[in-house]
Amino acid sequence: CRICEMEFTEPERTMRHMVKAHSKPQKAKK
Questions:
Q1: Where is the C2H2-type domain (predicted)?
Q2: What are the backbone angles phi and psi of residue 23, rounded to the nearest 5°?
Q3: What is the pTM of this model?
Q4: pLDDT in tens for each of the 30 residues of the chain?
Q5: Helices in the chain by DSSP H: which ranges?
Q6: What is the pLDDT of residue 17?
Q7: If you compute the radius of gyration of the chain from its CA atoms, what whole number of angstroms results?
Q8: Contact present, 30 and 3 (Cβ < 8 Å)
Q9: pLDDT value of position 24
């Protein structure tokens, strides 16, 4: 995850995580 640095085995899951946990798409950078 670009925001909280969590890692997922699938990029798709990372995308879903960001939407659910941060309400933002994969473009945020910390």
A1: 1-22
A2: 55, 35
A3: 0.48
A4: 777 778 889 988 888 888 888 776 556 554
A5: 11-17
A6: 84
A7: 8
A8: yes
A9: 64
